[in-house]
Design goal:
six-stranded antiparallel barrel, Elongation Factor Tu (Ef-tu), domain 3, mainly beta, six-stranded antiparallel β-sheet, about 300 residues, Ribosomal protein L3, domain 3
């Protein structure tokens, strides 16, 4: 996948949101705590359908997010922001109170809420809050704007946004591996010892014409720390900390203190990495799985 360059930051941006006529937020954010194993009844069309099976899930700690404003956009340009007047919230964000700009439903084409993840409620915390924009669903702009305004200054829980069995897209920054050679970075074969005197390099840089090296030729360079989006990840269950915390906490993360989302399969990034979830843009099925057990022995 490309581009293979370092991400600008650990809070990834989302450029495309799913269309929804339901009055709701279309995204949330959490922190990767680790992985564990669950058992559930297979409700797919596989040969194991109807049987109890085991599978790996990723544990995301999702502390409540604080909504501090509403943003109206038109054709990708910001028209105005309506920020909260709560001085405590503005002090956390480091923003100065601004004059309140009035948004009109007829003048905007997109409505977002301005929110930040409250990392200070986890066991590790962060120096700066992770601020982001989250799209709002609704029948029309007036309904979206009214709903967004009703959330300003309030905390939103993940259980109010997503349901068990719903499909989401996970956007995160992958684990960084620094500068790596072409063999590890692109998976090319090593050369035999008498080929060119070199082993871990590309055999050729391309054809004679065109007279330059194409960008597709394997080269050494940055590996990891890329922004990547994983599509159609299934929400298995929402659990409380007491039902998921292993003895001693998760390796390299600690004890989970907030509500958690169990996502089927693995997700990008190391532990403590911010993971943004959005309503799946390609799949709208919602079918709650029949969960049987959750292992309290985490995977390293």
């Amino acid at each position: 996948m490309r581009p293979r360059k370092r991400a600008e930051g650990q809070t990834p941006r989302i450029g495309v949101w799913a269309a929804s006529t339901e009055k709701r937020l279309l995204g949330f954010a959490g922190y990767k705590a680790g992985m564990t194993t669950v058992s559930y009844i297979d409700d797919s069309t596989s040969p194991n359908a109807g049987n109890e099976i085991f599978g790996a899930v990723t544990v995301l700690e999702v502390p409540p997010m604080m909504v501090y404003g509403v943003r109206g956009m038109k054709y990708g340009q910001t028209l105005a922001d309506e920020l909260t007047t709560d001085e405590k919230i503005l002090k956390i964000l480091g923003n100065k109170p601004k004059a309140k700009n009035k948004l009109e439903p007829s003048s905007v084409s997109e409505i977002f809420v301005l929110a930040y993840a409250q990392s200070h409620k986890t066991g590790f915390g962060r120096k700066h809050p992770d601020k982001m924009m989250i799209a709002v669903g609704g029948k029309d702009m007036a309904e979206k704007l009214d709903y967004a305004r009703s959330l300003v200054g309030k905390e939103i829980k993940a259980s109010e946004v997503f349901k068990p069995g719903e499909y989401v897209d996970a956007v995160a920054i992958t684990t960084g591996k620094g500068w790596q050679g072409a063999v590890k970075r692109h998976g090319i074969m090593t050369q035999r010892r008498k080929a060119t005197g070199k082993v871990r390099h590309a055999g050729t840089l391309g054809a004679w014409h065109p007279g330059y090296v194409l960008y597709t030729v394997p080269h050494a360079g940055q590996m990891g720390y890329h922004k990547r989006t994983e599509m159609n990840k299934r929400v298995m269950k929402m659990v409380e900390p007491a039902a998921i915390n292993p003895r001693g906490g998760f390796p390299h993360y600690g004890v989970v203190k907030n509500e958690c989302i169990l996502i089927k399969g693995s997700l990008n990034g190391p532990v403590k990495r911010l993971v943004r979830l959005r309503k799946a843009v390609r799949k709208s099925e919602v079918k709650a799985p029949d969960m049987r057990d959750i292992s309290l022995q985490p995977k390293n």
